Amino acid sequence: MKDPVSRVARTMQPSGIRKFFDVVAEMPDAISLGVGEPDFDTPWHIREAGIYSLEQGRTFYTSNAGLPELKQEVSNYYRRKHGLTYDPKTETFITVGGSEAIDMAMRAMLDPGDQIIIPEPCYVSYVPCARMTGAEVVTIPLQEKNEFKLTAEELLSAVTEKTKLLVLAFPNNPTGAVMTREDLEPIAKICMEKDIYVLSDEIYAELTYSGEHVTIAQLPGMRERTVIINGFSKAYAMTGWRLGFAAGPKEILLQMVKLHQFAIMCAPTTSQYAGLEALRFGDKDIEIMRESYNQRRRYVVNELNDMGLHCFEPFGAFYVFPSIQSLQMSSDEFAEQLLAEEKLAVVPGTAFGSCGEGFIRISYAYSLAELKEALTRIRHFIERRRQG
Amino acid sequence: MLREELLRLIRNNSRIELKDLAVMLGSDEATVANEISDLEKEGIICGYYTLINWDNTDEEMVDALIEVNVNTSRDLGFDTIAERFYMFDEVKSCYLISGRYDFLLLLEGKTMRQVANFVSSKLSPIEHVTGTATHFIMKRYKDYGTVIGRVKKDNREKMSI
Questions:
Q1: Are residues A194 and A50 in the same domain?
Q2: Which of B23, B156, B159 to mutate to test the interface with A (most CBs of A within 10 A)?
Q3: What is the pLDDT of residues B116-125, one digit of tens each?
Q4: What is the ipTM of this complex?
């Protein structure tokens, strides 16, 4: 009898964290610091633009690569923010969230036998998407002592002749780490010397609290070897709209759009009209949300350090990644016991790679009152552990 | 610490404790306390109120918006006339406005009759008032940025990567 499923699919490791999520879902009275999405509703003027597009009967496919005016806005965005020029027609394209763009970029750039370097801890889809292409995955365990930034030494020790692509995801999920221009310069130098391309996942770019976000594509010589992935989910609180975009050199984007055309047709039309409103008139919304996240970020970091859970200061996204190593328990044990005893869900660091052991991810995309309650529960939990 | 950031933070929630405010603004308690005290002295922070939906209490309460037209003269400008309006306790808000009327007052009373009496016996007789139009508020949907009676619900999945 033939195996109904492919070997590739069967041998792919499912995300280990799913089981824990199911346990949480079955505890209706549990509270959570476990979400990876904003707590704001999509600003009304953006929702209204989506509704209006439906009223106007904009219910058809758009062109494969997305609405021309939206691609123009993406191009404008990079000119305005980073002084980068992308031809809207050939060097930008609209995707079903950042996730699709990650998949398409890897498929468009990797062959079996190529090597891809993925620094961990990181978002869960890079490794599986890379494996689907048959490429060889090399992970780099980032260090807390480096504030979870990628260093030139770490990169150099992982690079081989076969290295084709480097994934950079800053501001980072789950650590909240950012990389400044000074941090990126030595990385860019290595990429040029060793002829390595970069997939830069910048979905949290707008949520940077230590000055303007810098993309590696801004550094001299890097625009031609970088595909930037970005989207509307985090910046405009639009996760459910499933809308993202990519910008990069024509040669790569052309292949990405081709694959996207066969797999997806086009991103949802309603979402694209909403996205157009967001890019044109949403700067103020981002400012308001960023200020509010930043206040909560300071609050959570301060509370965690105060209760003795060492936490380096993250300057991006809406996560903190405190160390639980002082408690002599694993991340999974911490998360499971915290849920059982305090009915509070957090994500164990190991969900983002084995080097996340010893850490937990806490999201601060919650109201101050919710954060207060949740942090009090963590405090009780660790006080009991320290006494026992 | 930016004073505008402090103002934006307490604008919608004046009950955040001082120690939390200090942390959230990346400052310390003494600095924030001084800043608030300065803002009060400078008349920038003018008061702290509670937004109450009286409809859900046993207390009878009726609000009306009253447009008022006046005649000004060399000796009697808008500011002087405004004072004649806003000194009444019943007048909760008083604005000079552009458009067909000169003033807009927000009036609070126990009953419609009480409001009507106020308009006819106190407001209209004021010298230089040439006309009024009273609009009773039938239902309040949103006040000061808050949708009345809507409890915000977290519609997110409890866990996501």
A1: yes
A2: B159
A3: 999 999 999 9
A4: 0.90
